[in-house]
Amino acid sequence: MGILGAGPVTQAIHLPTLSRLQEHFTVRAIMDVDPAVAVSVAARVGARVAPTMADLLEDPAVEVVVICSPHRFHAEQVIAACRAGKRAILCEKPFAMTPEEAREIAEVSAETGVPILVGAMHTYDPAWLAARAAWGEFPAGVHTVRSSIVLPPNAYFEDSATEVLGRPASVPADFTDPEQVAERVLGGVMGLAIHDLPLVRTFVPEGTELEVVRAAALAPGGYHILLRAGALDIELHAALTDNWEPSWFFEAIGEDSSIAVDFGPSYIHAGSAVVTLAERGRRTIFGRDIHNGYAGEWLHLAEVAAGATPTQPAETLIEDLRFALNIAETASRLARNTVKAAHA
Known about the structure:
Elements: E1 2-4, H1 8-18, E2 29-31, H2 35-45, E3 48-49, H3 53-58, E4 64-67, H4 74-83, E5 88-91, H5 99-112, E6 116-118, H6 126-134, E7 142-151, H7 154-161, H8 178-191, H9 197-201, E8 210-217, E9 222-229, E10 232-240, E11 247-254, E12 257-262, E13 274-279, E14 282-286, H10 293-305, H11 314-342
Parallel strand pairs: 1-2, 1-4, 2-3, 4-5, 5-6, 7-10
Antiparallel strand pairs: 7-11, 8-9, 9-10, 11-12, 12-13, 13-14
């Protein structure tokens, strides 16, 4: 496999995960826009440095391509990897920044026969998948969904996992500036909430119009977004602060059933979520599996590269992206207008 982008996610999540999956994958080449970072990270796994994307894609030893570059490059790189005829592609979320890009990717994937997986790791978590297989008609009765993420900034966990090189500088936001607030909300949804949005979409009735009721950026980092889809209330909350105990919690509540998912911070490599499924007074607990969602996506990638059909078809990936973009853009616009009105 070859990796495009050697930033903190590659260094602190993917390479430690791959170190436990060496019977499936060998890193052959790494490319990064910062040559010094590429050299150092490649040396950790005995890979060569690819000076350009084209060089990596032309390497016959690279059978699978993993895309961990900034969001704006994903569509171009996914399409190029498909055109190169690789066996499979894993792209970090989001795999595109517009529905049109996503549709083009799906068309090229179908044309070339190269399957694509998107790294929304919670959709591959073994405990989540086990609960989904067991819950029957539960989603139809859900009236409330919450995603709550309370974490120190990523650097706290990245430094716990490895020595991170080339970390982008963090710039504090001015929360009185409508444009900066809008940017924070948009980035929060597409960078953090997007991990849980495919789970949220599981409970949204098909064809239901989504309304953003409230949207705000939280200082020093985070967001609070309230949505409504018909009779379904949705709350998305994230706070990036070192003042509280880390927590990544997802829940869906119905009249006589509920599901509660404790994912835990992904960087600590502590296995799967713990899921509690309560149905009519009976509780079933799933997890903790030795593998987390990141390992789950890599193991599925190995299956797909060997010829298996991806569990998430292209149409699902496109609709997941469309759902995330709708929330991100609408919430960003509402947050901007709210700040403008407050300072008018």
